[in-house]
């Protein structure tokens, strides 16, 4: 079982941006010291109340320079927002600086205002994501290539450097739409799902499609499925809920506003899933959240829920959002990382 945390370098109440970065890097250091497997880095833009992680590849390179063991993942690199050749260069550079520790997680995000700020049509996001990923993979594997697509026309380009990990770093796809599941399986790419309060078993039918496509394409082993979700570990269930509850509830409020804003910008009808989820997040309680596929509790509780999902959907690993709105106590978050690495991880050896 791969265990990591999802890190936004959150904005902390009453702290300067410099202090927030310092606290964020201390969480990185704790994750390296205690033995977590992966530090997952967000890409978030233009939200001064939420997070400072605008450039996961820059942050990842800084992390690579101060660590020796922990892997560095992007969760996610939002492919449609930047030129794929530039992403290929910078991600390969990170792979070199980290000596081959990059996991390249990609997606397209659902924050419409970011696309509008960068003058990119959100309606093009899926097609751009597919095209960008194809270009990046070719850039990493071919000495010289040309490409003509809907959005990019590339002639006679050699990308330098190419990554340490050949033919490419491990690629994982954030599954949002139904068609992503078979496409990721056919391509032999890892899949990760994101839940806030839901039970990830609701994706079981799609996971089965993903795994069949993986097997049919001749890829070895079992297709891996990973999960990003809220999570916090403390000595007891009550202590974990007390420490994590306020930041989780604030996170739900923030997500509700984001979803509502994206729905308005897209002129989504009232019955659109974004509107429904936005409303749901304004009403949800911590007790309801705990019934979903989240990992908030003692080491024994977290181990039990992980083993249940390992049995039910073949879960390969998780990235836990340990301070998703910046309200968790820093010392408590450090202790949560220690318990996750030392006590939860040991149950899967």
Low-confidence stretches: none
**Biggest sheet: strands, sense, closure?**
8 strands, parallel, barrel
**What is the N-to-C succession of helices and strands?**
EHEHEEHEHHEEEHEHEHHHEHEH
Count the helices. How many?
A: 12
Helix content: 40-55%
**CATH architectural designation:** Alpha-Beta Barrel
Radius of gyration, whole Å: 19 Å
User: Which structural category fits the helices and strands?
Assistant: alpha/beta
Strand adjacency order, main sheet: 1-2-3-5-8-9-10-12
Count of all domains = 1
State the CATH topology: TIM Barrel
How many DSSP-defined strands? 12
Overall pLDDT metric: 97
Inertia-based shape: globular
CATH H level: which superfamily? Luciferase-like domain
N-to-C CA distance: 8 Å
Estimated share of beta-strand residues: 15-25%
């Amino acid at each position: 079982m791969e265990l990591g945390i999802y890190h936004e370098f959150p904005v902390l109440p009453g702290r300067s941006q410099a202090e927030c970065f310092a606290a964020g890097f201390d969480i990185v250091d704790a994750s390296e010291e205690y033995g977590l497997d992966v530090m997952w880095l967000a890409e978030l833009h233009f939200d001064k109340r939420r997070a400072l992680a605008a450039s996961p590849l820059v942050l990842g390179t800084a992390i690579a320079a101060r660590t020796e063991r922990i892997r560095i993942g992007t969760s996610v690199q939002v492919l449609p927002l930047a030129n794929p050749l530039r992403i290929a260069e910078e991600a390969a550079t990170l792979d070199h600086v980290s000596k081959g520790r990059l996991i390249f997680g990609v997606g397209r995000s659902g924050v419409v205002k970011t696309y509008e700020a960068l003058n990119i049509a959100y309606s093009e996001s899926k097609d751009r994501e597919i095209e960008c990923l194809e270009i990046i993979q070719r850039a990493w594997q071919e000495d010289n290539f040309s490409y003509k697509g809907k959005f990019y026309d590339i002639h006679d380009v050699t990308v330098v450097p190419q990554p340490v990990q050949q033919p490419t770093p491990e690629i994982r796809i954030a599954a949002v739409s139904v068609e992503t599941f078979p496409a990721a399986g056919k391509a032999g790419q890892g899949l990760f799902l994101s839940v806030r309060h839901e039970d990830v078993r609701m994706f079981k039918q799609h996971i089965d499609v993903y795994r069949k496509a993986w097997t049919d394409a001749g890829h070895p082993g079992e297709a891996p499925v990973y999960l990003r979700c809220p999570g916090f570990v403390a000595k007891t269930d009550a202590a974990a809920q007390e420490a994590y509850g306020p930041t989780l509830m604030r996170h739900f409020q923030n997500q509700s506003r984001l979803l509502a804003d994206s729905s308005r910008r897209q002129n989504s009808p009232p019955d659109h899933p974004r509107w429904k989820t936005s409303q749901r997040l304004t009403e949800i309680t911590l007790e309801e959240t705990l019934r979903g596929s989240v990992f908030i509790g003692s080491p024994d509780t977290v181990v039990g829920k992980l083993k249940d999902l390992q049995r039910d959907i073949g879960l390969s690993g998780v990235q836990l959002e340990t301070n998703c709105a910046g309200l968790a106590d820093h010392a408590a978050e450090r202790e949560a990382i220690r318990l996750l690495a030392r006590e939860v991880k040991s149950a899967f050896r």
